[in-house]
Amino acid sequence: MVGRCEAEGERLTTTAADMLARLAEARSIAAAAGRDDLVERLDHASSALGAGAETAVAVVGEFKQGKSTLVNALLRTDLCPVDADIVTALPTILRFGRPPSAALTGENDDRTPIELGEVQKHITGEAGQEARAVEIRIDRRLLGAGLAIVDTPGVGGLDSAQGNLTLATLTMAGAALFVTDAAQELTAPEVDFLRRTVERCPRTVVVLTKTDLHVEWRRIVEIDQGHLRRAGLDLPVVPVSSFLRMRAQARDDTDLNAESGFPRLVELLRTEIAGSAAEARVTAARAELTFVAAQLRERLDAEEAAAGDPGLHARYAERARRSESLAGGTWQVVLQDGIQDLAADVDHDLRERLRLLIRQGEEILASSDPRETLQDFQAWAAREAARAAADNLMLLVTRAEQLAGEVAERFGMEARDISATLPVLRTNTDKARQITLTFDKSGMRQFLGAFTAARVAYGGFYLLGAVGALFSVAWAAPLGLLAGVTLGRRLVKAEKERQVQQRRAQAGQELRRYVDEVGFHVGRDSREAVRRTQRLLRDEFATRARELSRSAHAAEAVVREVAALAEPQRRHRATSLREQRLRLDRLAS
Amino acid sequence: MNLLAQTRDLLDRAVAATGDPRLVRARRRLDEPLRVAIAGKLKAGKSTLLNALIGEELAATDAGECTRVVTWYADGPAYAVTSYLRDGTAEARPFTRRDGAVRIDLGRPAADVDRLEVRVPSARLRRHTLIDTPGIESLSADVSARTHTFLNRDGRADAVIYLLRHLHGGDVRFLEAFHGGGEGGTSVNAIGVLSRADEIGGCRLDAMTAADRVADRYTADLRLRRLCPVVVPVAGLLGAAGATLREEEFRTLAQVAALPMDHIVELLLTADRFAAGSEQRRHVLTRVGLFGVRLSTRLIHEGVVTDSAGLAAALTEHSGITRLRDLLRTHLEGRAGVLKARSALAALDACLAPGSPLVADAERIRAGAHEFVELRLLHQLRSGRLTLADDRRAEMDRLLGGSGGGVSERLGLTGADDAGAAAREAQARWQRLAEHPLSNRDLRTAARAVARTCEGIVAGQNQQG
Q1: What part of A 468-507 touches B (C-beta under 8 Å)?
Q2: Domain with A59 in it
Q3: Helices A313-324 and A276-308: crossing angle, nearest 10°?
């Protein structure tokens, strides 16, 4: 099993290495042709493909299901704290690094190095230091294969503020492991959470832990599979025993490791998750390479065409002229309008959600005395606010991806139109051009996913965690004086009622203040994200437009040049170009 | 005339005046045992705990979700099953017993059945009727709904044992709904159980210690204390097995214990490995769980127990079921009279028009009976509406009967002490507090009530003396 995994990894790296070599070759051709813009594009592509690219795998689930133990067993470490009672309070990110190190990530993504021995104290929140996450770098093959494992806090359960924050971060994860134990079948809240997880992160695996403790785990697997089927969720269920895996490691026992069920999970992580993420990266690089090759070929094609018919010059000149308008083409309008709609919709969505939250909150307050229910009410407010923010972020991300697709489509259409006047060459170039200009859908999604999701830094979520600090009303108002005066019994009752009213009003004000604060932070972040989306899309396509235009001008120049030559010279040049064209074709294949 | 007698009398008059069948039922209920519902999330171990409490394998248990209909287990002259339907009729149903468990043939969709009643000749059930409920948060929404309806709307249980595996948001919401938040709902009729305690911390031999730690934390949790003031860890499987352990089960375990130690360790590594040995072992495993097997083999291997009776006793001791029984006795049965009277008076309120003389009588009983005053105060105290220093709060809780209604329990005495003197001393202290000019109004009222309780104890002691 281990041997096979290694071979898989080997194959994947070879393809990536192969792609890097091709990119390097294309780079030298582009440099020789004097196309520094294309050189830059290729450099970008190779750095994205090379080191540092990792896929985040979030480990989620109800608390006390063995999430941290699973992470420990998976990575053969004991860094994540495990206890019968205390649970993980801070998200823990485990990524590849040599030598091992650890750091705290603060509110502004600043990193404070900590001792490895101190890690557990920080994760359980015992150290009392404010931080957003704990980052651990260790030297493990699985992490080296391009995975980062994120252990999420179980505090408060799935249906809490924390649970909703976890969901929000899932939008940025490449995959999720949903952990549930063999002691019982899936519950209604768990299936609900799973459904929301899959919406955000389609690559999800259900991991059934603690199979060593429960003899009936096979039946639980069957029952869970039935529940998933009925919920319309088609997810693999992998039963594992973290205990056996740890034991196997201690004894260096391969059979025991096989019995633990982990080899299948590791295999899934390596091939399905790390493997397909690596494949997607190679695909994205290939798309760039094809684009560049098509740009480089254009000049060669033009030369060949001109060699056959020197009268083509007018058409090429026309094309070059039209290509200049591409930078300000209608795709810009699509982008502008789209961004405006998106910003308005996302903003409206957030307002609507928060308005509803206030209304519900006031209903709850009206039916209770805040002095007794304040704690529950705070938890409720934090949970609902986090839910609103998480759902709002989800809307933003889906809409941004959709818009990016629309802009790309329009851009492709316009780019094709420019070349419509050109003669059809009887070579295989049409196919290549087709691919470059329509932007293969999955490749697009990949590239867009990278910027919309990963770069949205939601500071607002950090704030939601500290909800307690916002609610700061002194409930124990000094009533002694008033109550000390002997009023009639009815008066006391009325007074009590009045106090309750006052507390309600006070709590209502607090709620509005809190929601206002949440709305401000989340709104600011989402506006920022929208702006970034717009800028990124605009720059991306404007650059491409410039490159296309430059290619068109280069083609025009070469056609003019060729037209000035005598017939035999033209033929000679065409033959010498054949070699170059073959080289490009090979690269783009 | 004590509280229960007063209530009986009032209900007799109400029945005579109206003939309302609901009042007839409420009156009959006063003479029946206290109704205790066992509730919790699905697979929390409700049926297993019920079996452990009765000491008989009655309720069917399974790895998957099992209980789908609210089922009452009450004392009776012989085993019998009655099915009460939604349309108000009742019918006797045939049943079989497999491995002791009662398997009932419903004969119709579960949705038509309101509840099942299983009569069992049992001394334990003479003190309280136990009600098994389907799990909340079940994926079958109608199953969850049945429990919610049963416990929240019908008010047919006097008290509840709530099973938590760990404290989830859903548990808190359920308990809140059970208490209803109004004056009627109190924290005085709920006991929390940290169930499946043997599985906490990976079924290792120190599982029960870890469970104790978790339960202590829950008991100290302010938010939970308001809803159920005490949480005890219980390993239901062990309790049930301890009550019904069979000779051949002991033999199977003894055979394993006789193996060399290395062998045992390998065998007990996982449930799968142990069960793979033979059908008997698989059976024992489902009966006592992995923790139970590990514990039993160790006890037998070390020679601590030598026969099935010894093992049964050891399992019962480790299960924590004895502690739960004690709590049931002191916290619920000791208060059975007032809890039942409360349910009956609530029924009276629901059936009669407000302002009628009978309702006024009910109000008089409520206001006059010191038991009710104590209950209300206890609730206020536990819900944090009365602010007191911690040690004083604990004493007040105890004096009001929070840990049992008996004299020594209230005074916190250990046998030999003089109850009369202790009660007089407590009375004086609380009287001072009640008259202290710096005490606030709420505290003065509370302290007066506590002093009155002490007075009652003193009077009782004097009568005896």
Answers
A1: 476, 479-480, 483-484
A2: 52-260
A3: 140
